[in-house]
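Trying the structure run again after the queue cleared.
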Amino acid sequence: MTLSHKYRAILAATALAVSLALPAELFAQATGSPPAADPPAAAATPVIPSAAPTVEQPLAPPMTSPGMALRLPRDLSPWGMFMAADIVVKAVMVGLVFASVLTWTTWFAKAIELMMARRRMHAEIAVLGQARSWSEVGARMNGRGNDSAAMLRAADDELRLSADAMSPDGVKERIASRLERIEAAAGRQMIRGTGILATIGAIAPFVGLFGTVWGIMNSFIGISKSQTTNLAVVAPGIAEALLATALGLVAAIPAVVMYNMFSRWIAGYRALHADAAAEILRIISRDLDRGAFDQRPAERRRAITAAE
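Done. Tokens:
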């Protein structure tokens, strides 16, 4: 009995040592006893965080300051961009708008002038084509303010001056020379005012490009001053620069189209003068073959002698 009591005391001491060295779960598994139940949550001891020092992370600096945000333009309409633009870009835009207005004014005035002149020339060529003699031409065209009046006067003056030298070939050659000069003068008069279209069409894109370069340069200067590449800082200046380019194209493209159109119309107007001159020469040639100018009154020859 004494020996069994000793064995039991040794086993109890061993179990106590193992329970102190191992966790409760492992001890329960080793001994086969169920693990102890967790204490209720209400009775749980609050865990106090350690007072280890924490390092605060620096906050990222804002991209733009409030003052800079207030200075950014909010109106990106054409008028708003114009009002917010640099003085140089404003001057470029005003010049391009003025050039565009001048282009359309020239087109309106010159188009009306050319259409009316061509209509008159068509009607006068029809009248000349129906005339059979030089005297009939004078009766039909007398007192009419028309475009071929200068050609008729020049031909009649040459016939008067050639009253004592009525060689058919010589007379027609001299009259043709006069009519060619009148035709060239009519072309020069009609093309007057269209040179401004060629000038605007040639230089307006480069003027707009100058405004674009100046505006983008100001945008880069703004980026350098604000030390940020935020789109809100860059976009207004680039938009103003592109507006200058757009105005340059708006002024240049119509000017080039109108100049080419007027060149074709004026070439057609000169061709109508050439047709009128051909009709006058044909009438004079018929009368020369008939000998009508040889039977003119002697008063014309006396007028020529008095004039000399």
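The radius of gyration is 52 Å. Worth checking whether this holds up in the mutant runs.
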